[in-house]
């Protein structure tokens, strides 16, 4: 049988390349589920669990149908557009009886995060080499999510009007001074040990996504740039809080921020190691098929 070349790979005459029809329909179905769950339950655990399950099923079906990770981006975009159209046509007309919750503005991030997670897990545990263009899908998702994360982080830590610790224009230069007080109080029995966890864990976790996303976006050839960037973000935020009196700046936040960024880098390497162990390849292994992204 003769073959012909097209951009994106080699196809046989008479062979129909899967299109975007099913991913678009699955995106519309996810949007319908979203609208129905919100109308029935509002912003509750049932809403997020049900919507998460619908988006996950749509992701798996779209990928199994198309064999191409690009279709997951089409699916995500369709779900977001259809959801926005549904609220514009239905809920805005019913705003007097059913006001739109501000949490709904984060639904595009929720959609993309689930699709990105589902596509990554399939890549790691399926071991299939028939699924194409994962690198492009994963990189695009990380750029979008990383941009949203960075914007939200800067807004929450620096935007005026956000409730924070009292801004007194000072800078805590003594490392672990506050942490030492919490530990001493816990030892004397006058403080709760839970305050130690509440002090440390959020300051670390808030920077973990940053370390992960810069590891993905910068690539393996720019390892030397990771630590300066991991150090630069918490220093810049604490400096801005101190300089513009937007919160109480503390050297502890820089230290724990660096620890969180390093943890994010390690998370990427752990994910890469799991991919090699389960699928026999790196997470972002260079794809040999013509037309693939070929980033790594």
For this entry, give a set of tags.
296 residues, mainly alpha, two-stranded antiparallel ribbon, two-stranded parallel ribbon, 10 helices, globular, disordered N terminus, disordered C terminus
Describe this structure in words.
The structure is a single chain. This protein is mainly alpha-helical and 296 residues long. 66% of the residues lie in helices and 4% in strands. Helix 1 crosses helix 3, helix 3 runs antiparallel to helix 4 and helix 9 runs antiparallel to helix 10. The N terminus and C terminus are likely disordered.
Strand order of the largest sheet: 1-2
The total count of strands amounts to 4
- The end-to-end distance, rounded to whole angstroms, is 33 Å
Reading the helices and strands in chain order gives EEHHHHHEHHHHEH
Give start-end ranges of low-pLDDT stretches.
1-15, 289-296
Q: Structural class, please?
A: mainly alpha
**Proportion of strand residues:** under 5%
Average residue pLDDT: 84
Main beta sheet strand tally, sense and closure: 2 strands, antiparallel
- Describe the global form: globular
Helix content: 55-70%
Number of helices: 10
Alpha-carbon Rg, integer: 23 Å
Short description:
The protein is mostly helical.
List the helices and strands and how they pair.
Elements: E1 3-6, E2 9-12, H1 21-41, H2 45-66, H3 70-91, H4 107-126, H5 134-158, E3 171-172, H6 177-188, H7 194-205, H8 208-218, H9 223-243, E4 249-250, H10 251-279
Helix pairs in contact: 1-2, 1-3, 2-3, 2-4, 3-4, 4-5, 4-10, 5-8, 7-10, 8-9, 8-10, 9-10
């Amino acid at each position: 049988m003769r073959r012909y070349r097209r951009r994106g790979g080699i196809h046989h005459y008479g062979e129909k390349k899967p299109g975007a029809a099913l991913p678009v329909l699955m995106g519309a179905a996810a949007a319908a589920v979203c609208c129905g769950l919100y109308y029935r339950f509002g912003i509750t655990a049932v809403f997020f669990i049900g919507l998460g399950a619908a988006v996950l099923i749509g992701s798996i079906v779209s990928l199994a149908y198309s064999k191409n990770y690009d279709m997951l981006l089409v699916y995500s975009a369709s779900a977001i557009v259809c959801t926005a159209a549904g609220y514009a046509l239905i809920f805005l007309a019913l705003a007097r009886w059913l006001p739109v919750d501000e949490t709904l503005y984060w639904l595009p991030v929720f959609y993309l995060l689930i699709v990105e997670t589902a596509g990554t897990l399939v890549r790691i545990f399926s071991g299939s080499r028939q699924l194409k263009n994962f690198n492009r899908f994963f990189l695009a998702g990380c750029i979008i999510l990383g941009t949203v994360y960075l914007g939200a982080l800067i807004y929450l830590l620096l935007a005026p009007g956000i409730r924070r610790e009292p801004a007194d224009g000072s800078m805590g230069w003594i490392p672990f001074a506050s942490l030492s007080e919490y530990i001493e109080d816990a030892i004397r029995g006058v403080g709760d040990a839970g305050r130690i966890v509440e002090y440390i864990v959020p300051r670390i976790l808030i920077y973990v996504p940053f370390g992960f996303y810069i590891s993905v976006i910068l690539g393996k050839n720019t390892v030397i740039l990771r630590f300066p960037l991991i150090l630069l973000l918490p220093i810049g935020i604490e400096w801005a809080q101190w300089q513009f009196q937007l919160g109480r700046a503390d050297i502890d936040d820089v230290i724990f921020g660096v620890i969180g960024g390093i943890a994010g880098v390690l998370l990427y390497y752990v994910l890469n190691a799991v991919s090699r162990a389960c699928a026999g390849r790196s997470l972002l292994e260079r794809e040999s098929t013509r037309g693939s992204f070929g980033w790594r």
